[in-house]
Design a protein that fits this description.
Elements lengths: L5 E5 L9 H8 L4 H9 L4 E3 L2 E2 L11 E5 L19 E4 L3 E6 L16 H11 L7 E3 L7 E7 L2 H12 L3 E10 L6 E5 L2 E5 L8 E5 L9 E9 L3 E8 L6 H8 L26 E9 L6 E5 L4 H6 L1
Parallel strand pairs: 8-15
Antiparallel strand pairs: 1-4, 2-3, 2-4, 5-6, 6-8, 7-8, 9-14, 9-15, 10-13, 11-12, 13-14, 15-16
Length: about 300
């Protein structure tokens, strides 16, 4: 039988005679939309296990509980489709998987049932979980590695806030053509997206932008190993722009191996790998509810291992 997952808060003397509405907003940091949803659920808000309204006042020693699961938003746009998942971490609120290359993250036209989100939705059904799919960030189709999923909107909002505060670190391994000019360096080039309809493919591309309309983007790299004609680099980004690593490394003359969008004009050795050689291998963050440090790593996939 499916059961709801509750978020709890113990009332102290400091909150004595405070309305539950204030507890939900100030102490439990719930959004107005979430509070509205809880008010409509018969067991959405409990005070010492008894359903109450948001106008109820609390006393020291009491416990407020609210349903953390999404009670209204469903997975209607995500069609479940069984898929083998490589799970790196899971608890009541979070799921982290090692995404293989070649799989898109979100459902889209032509990918209604073969996205990672569909596989996760099927996994939740199999586990009989009252969980929804909220992807934390994204990875390009060709990029492999760590991808996070929040099981409810509250957790997703908290993870996004942590990321905006710089408390979520994500690191990549990349195989690039040629050799970066320095052993380590930073790339700060504004980015602006466009679609070149004349090319016939209409694919999204990035371009340099030094005007105020461009988005700030910062990438840091470090050379790990120099090989014959290409280099293994450790990369981390301060900003999360679309194609940021691919675009920035191409701008310093070292496009990622296998990247046919930003490196197609170069004579490359990437025939040994048939996708963009980028892997999200490490993620570190503070848990959004407990504050505990969580550190995850995903092993380098076989195709990149062979190149080394």
């Amino acid at each position: 039988m499916k059961k709801y997952h509750y978020l709890e808060f113990n009332i102290t003397e400091k909150q004595e005679n405070t309305e539950i509405l204030s507890i939900l907003r100030q102490e439990m940091r719930l959004s107005t939309r979430k509070i509205r949803a809880l008010k409509r659920h018969p067991e959405g808000i409990l005070l010492d296990e008894v359903p109450v309204t948001v106008r109820e006042t609390v006393r020291s020693g009491q416990k407020v509980k609210v349903i953390l699961n999404d009670t209204e938003e469903g997975n209607e746009r995500v069609l479940p489709a069984p898929m083998a998942l490589s799970i790196l971490y899971e608890d009541e609120n979070l799921l982290f998987v090692n995404k293989p290359a070649g799989i898109v993250c979100h459902p889209s036209q032509g990918h209604l049932t073969d996205s990672l989100a569909s596989g996760v939705a099927a996994y939740f059904l199999e586990q009989e979980e009252l969980s929804q799919v909220h992807l934390i960030g994204r990875l390009d189709k060709d990029t492999s590695g760590i991808l996070g999923i929040a099981k409810n909107k509250v957790t997703a909002e908290r993870m996004i806030a942590l990321r905006e505060q710089g408390k979520v670190q994500k690191e990549y391994l990349a195989l690039v053509n040629g050799c970066p000019p320095k052993e380590e360096g930073s790339i700060e080039i504004g980015m602006k997206e466009y679609r070149n309809r004349e090319s016939g493919d209409g694919r999204l591309r990035m371009c340099r932008d030094i005007s105020s309309s461009g988005k700030h983007a910062m990438t840091h790299y470090q050379v790990i190993q120099r090989l014959s004609g290409y280099t293994l680099c450790h990369v981390h980004i301060e900003t999360g722009r679309t194609h940021q690593i691919r675009f920035h490394m191409a701008q310093i003359g070292c496009p990622l191996m296998g990247d046919d969008l930003y490196g197609s004009s170069m004579k490359q050795s990437e025939k040994a790998i048939d996708r963009t050689a980028l892997h999200a291998y490490r993620s570190c963050f503070s848990h959004p509810f407990t504050g505990e440090k969580v550190e995850l790593t995903a092993p380098l996939p076989d195709d990149m291992k062979k190149m080394l």
